[in-house]
Amino acid sequence: MSTILWLLSIPFFSLIACEPSPPIRGYLINCGSNNDIKQDGITYKKDEGYTASGKLATLNRFDILPVLTTLRYFPYGPGKHCYELPVTTGGKFLVRTTYFYGGFDGGNEPPIFDQIIDGTVWSTVNTTDDYKNGLSSYYEIVVTANDGTLSVCLACNKNTKSPASPFISSLEVIDLDSSLYNSTDFGKYGLITVIRSNFASDGDLVRYPDDAFNRYWQPFIDGNPTVESHANVTSSEFWNRPPEKVFLSGSTTSRGKNLTIHWPPFSLPANRYYVALYFQDNRNTSPYSWRLFTVFIDGEVFYQDLNVTTKGVTVYGTEWPLSGETEITLIPRSDMPVGPTINAGEIFQILPLSGTTFGGDVMVMQILKQSLKNPPDDWNGDPCLPKEHPWFGIGCSEGVQVRVTSLNLRGLSLTGTLPKEIARLTALKELRLSTNKLTGPIPDLSPLKALEIIHLDENEFEGPFPDALATLPNLRELLLNKNRLSGGPPQNLIDRKGIIIRT
Ligand SMILES: *[C@@H]1O[C@H](CO)[C@@H](O)[C@H](O)[C@H]1NC(C)=O
Ligand SMILES: *[C@@H]1O[C@H](CO)[C@@H](O)[C@H](O)[C@H]1NC(C)=O
Ligand SMILES: *[C@@H]1O[C@H](CO)[C@@H](O)[C@H](O)[C@H]1NC(C)=O
Ligand SMILES: *[C@@H]1O[C@H](CO)[C@@H](O)[C@H](O)[C@H]1NC(C)=O
Ligand SMILES: *[C@@H]1O[C@H](CO)[C@@H](O)[C@H](O)[C@H]1NC(C)=O
């Protein structure tokens, strides 16, 4: 739906940059590779250390961009598989995932699967059409980090045909300045890129180093007359920091005429979108180099009497409803000696975020993961969310605050210990860990007032019998048999009615 195509035939840029440009801040990852590579002046790092699962594949082709020649895949199965990246809490990021199937699994149809950002299903990855046309595909989203880790995960969905494996070719997580797209409430929403265009251009994609954040501005040309700019704009004067290069060309019409642009060149599903348009009067700077026009989208006034000068200007709509074909019309004020003009535009789909698991529970689950020597291999990303893809064996509550309510890890040959911090999972109702090889003492679980079921039987727990369990008000089942505990249940536990105890 919001796939944007990235042509494989994009030539290698000869980036003989005159001025050194500041490096991109963030993670540029060449998935499935053992080596760092340099492409278009950017170093893409190998992905070791950013993900704990998956396998590497190499495509033996020489006609594709270097970053596409390797990929990481996650063999078919339940659970999500994540890249986890340390980030600054509250930071804003452009996340771009790139996919090129290349028949890595010996098949000829790319697998279909979900991609997930933190606790939210971001979109389905369906590269079927692009692959058929010899193209790679990329997806982009702008999000903020609500804690010190950003996770980007892949998971099978109902359309993933066994044994097809979700895969990824490259992952970019680029720090954006806080002013970018800042009219959006990123605590609640992410912005999925639908299109980002450089009007009146049939040249190359504009990207890094022209765009400091390596956003891709695709050339867009239609039948309208084009003009070249005679004045420079200053990118930093715009909150969204559009690259100066996209102002070099503009679409226009002659004096007195309306300018109509059918953009984007595809139909949009009915939704609310963030729309930003960028304009500049292309003439030499002078007191008379300005023009006034009204911007309409689908016949609605988007901005009345916009005064466009040689310094350039942007207008945006934060939640603009669009559906189907979109038409942008610029209508000049009747006394204007020149026609209207437009240089660039961006449209993002607004994605409501599903939130994340309660932070305290996330922390405990991380501690538990570390104290188990062999935790399930899908234990990464958010423990409970998205709902469709929680960690294996974890049950969670719904609602505004998502809590861990059950652990069901029976018979997994788990080794390691149960950390004392588990006593902070205060929404826990069921703790089922029977038939593993857990060692060490049973931590004090008495703060877990919601606990109804405790199955710790058939392990190697040692130490004194956990007497404090007798105080749990809701306890219905307590299985502790076949461990190495000393002592037996206290009298008040033996005397309790309506409780199954095996010790
Ligand atoms: C994937 O895309 C192809 C081509 O657009 C389409 O025919 C197919 O139905 C899509 N599959 C799913 C599961 O959406
Ligand atoms: C967006 O950023 C600009 C520049 O830092 C600032 O002036 C403006 O107030 C911000 N707008 C919002 C809605 O935060
Ligand atoms: C625009 O910027 C370029 C590169 O910095 C410079 O060569 C050119 O003279 C500038 N043009 C104007 C009109 O200032
Ligand atoms: C421009 O559009 C307006 C509003 O649709 C219309 O009234 C006007 O006639 C148009 N001008 C021209 C020259 O087509
Ligand atoms: C548009 O802006 C220019 C430059 O600031 C100014 O000289 C001109 O009067 C403005 N036009 C209108 C109609 O406000």
TrEMBL record:
Gene Ontology CC:
membrane
Please report the record's description of how this protein sits within the membrane.
Answer: Single-pass membrane protein
Domain named Malectin-like: residues: 29-350
Tell me which PROSITE patterns the record gives: LRR (PS51450)
Q: What is its main location?
A: membrane
The record's annotation in Pfam families points to: Malectin_like
Q: Which domain of life is it from?
A: Eukaryota
The record's listing under InterPro entries reads:
Leu-rich_rpt, LRR_dom_sf, Malectin-like_Carb-bd_dom
Keywords in alphabetical order: Leucine-rich repeat, Membrane, Repeat, Signal, Transmembrane, Transmembrane helix
Indicate the secretion signal residues: 1-18
Q: Where in the cell is it found?
A: Membrane
Q: What is this protein called?
A: Malectin-like domain-containing protein
Source organism of this protein record: Deinandra increscens subsp. villosa
